[in-house]
User: What shape does this take?
Amino acid sequence: MTARVLVAYGSKYGATAGIAEAIGATLREHGLAADVRPAADVDRIDGYDVVVVGGGLYVGRWHGDAVGFVRRFEDELVDRPTWLFSSGPTGGNPKAELELRDVLARQPGPPGNVAKLAGRIHPRGHRTFGGRAGSEMGGIFAQWVPKGDWRDFDAIRAWAASIADAVAVPVG
Ligand SMILES: Cc1cc2nc3c(=O)[nH]c(=O)nc-3n(C[C@H](O)[C@H](O)[C@H](O)COP(=O)(O)O)c2cc1C
Assistant: This one.
């Protein structure tokens, strides 16, 4: 039977939504039935076998919609293969590029509050991807964030393919 996958995301400016769409498209290419939805719009997950949840990073924390999703469905996520991802680090100057490379190589887990929840739902994995920042970003911190797109869609698709492989049911 085709596994049904929900890819839910918390995104303020669309970068994480774009990653979620790419994950969903790759899962479909691998024969899975994937829905990609804003995390805040999801009110039940009982129709899904597998869940992928992602959040944009803001001042060291996941976007609230992704946190709220994990809190809301904690009891059900425990029983489903679940993967998490974060969209955040940006380059743009030599120091930031070095830090970005370090974060992508080191792959820190989800931010503190989510890591705590993750300790209860036991996700199969977490991946941090580079983020995207544009001039539309508001707030007093936004001026310090270099502008550009550091999302690596090859890496995103490869990660999604690894999820598809992990949930694939042998045919025969
Ligand atoms: C105010 C502000 C704070 C941010 N804080 C972080 C942070 O703590 N860590 C990080 O990796 N990225 C941080 N970023 C970068 C965003 O996480 C990144 O641009 C992300 O891809 C945005 O996702 P979204 O468009 O889906 O909301 C910050 C961006 C802004 C505007």
Observations:
- The pocket of flavin mononucleotide is lined by residues 11-17, 56-60, 63, 87-90, 131-133, 137, 139, 141-142, 145 (CB under 6 Å).
- The mean pLDDT is 94.
